[in-house]
Amino acid sequence: MAGSAISPGLRGQHPVAVPVWLRGAWSRSWIQRAVRQVDEEGAIPVLGPPNESVEVLYVQTPWAFVDVRIPRIEGADGLMAFAGVTTVESNSVSWHACLHFPPEAGSSDERWRDADAGAPQPTKDMGVFSPAQDTDDVDTATMWLEVDPNGTYAEKWERVGAGGVCVARRRGTALIVVAGARFGFASETVFAAGRITSDGWVCDLSTDTTAQALNAVLVLPGSPAQWNAVLHGSDLVNWPVIDKAMPPPRFELEE
């Protein structure tokens, strides 16, 4: 998710759901980055060894996503997160982030407004995907390889949760996504991703490293009624009940 080409998004079009094979929760096995370029006639990126120093949980619904990345060694580089909407053309995937951690310049309100109108802002975050395993059905493939169109990186991804019920809702600019039993949360100040368990929505990764260390239970800001912006592709559920077999999320303000 670090390409250098620019995807304009589907300007002025109604949002299109991403393919089934991309929906669900994903963990990154490793990333390879270009370390030098050698070629007599032109520059050709040469990829370095696989790097597993950053733990990643990426939750993708039919349109919205949350991606949280935490270094495995405390204090090391690599802490980042982003969330927004995804567009796909063939096997080329573009992530149009509306929220970032650390925060980036620009207005998240404007980025969401453009995305809601079917015109997400241009992005350099693009990758080309192909199955990393022999399969007759790409929709059920669990291992995928992502490469930058310019050859500057390669990433291996493993599906850790099927799509199942998909939910995507907003409260202002804050976003909650659910794919099966995995969730991702993004706001202007904190991101988190984890599992929906019988004990609650447990944060496996969080930009609030204290909460992560304690395996804290996610508490959504506001009340259930305030999370009333339903995003494209979100299954119709009896919010905040996602599934009768799973507990609903907790809220700062209970109704």
Descriptive report:
The protein is mainly β and 255 residues long. Helix content is 5%, strand content 43%. The chain is built from two helices and 17 strands. It has helices at residues 108-116, 209-213, and strands at residues 24-37, 45-47, 54-60, 64-71, 80-89, 92-101, 126-131, 143-147, 153-161, 166-171, 174-179, 182-186, 191-197, 200-206, 219-220, 229-230, 250-251. The strands form three sheets. Strands 1-3-4-5-6-7-8-9 form an eight-stranded antiparallel β-barrel. Strands 14-13-12-11-10-16 form a six-stranded antiparallel sheet. It has a two-stranded parallel ribbon with strand order 15-17. Strand 12 (182-186) and strand 13 form a beta hairpin. The termini are far apart. Residues 3-12 have low confidence and may be disordered.
Q: What distinguishing features does this structure have?
A:
255 residues; 17 strands; disordered N terminus; 2 helices
Write the layout of secondary structure elements.
Elements: E1 24-37, E2 45-47, E3 54-60, E4 64-71, E5 80-89, E6 92-101, H1 108-116, E7 126-131, E8 143-147, E9 153-161, E10 166-171, E11 174-179, E12 182-186, E13 191-197, E14 200-206, H2 209-213, E15 219-220, E16 229-230, E17 250-251
Parallel strand pairs: 15-17
Antiparallel strand pairs: 1-2, 1-3, 1-9, 3-4, 4-5, 5-6, 6-7, 7-8, 8-9, 10-11, 10-16, 11-12, 12-13, 13-14
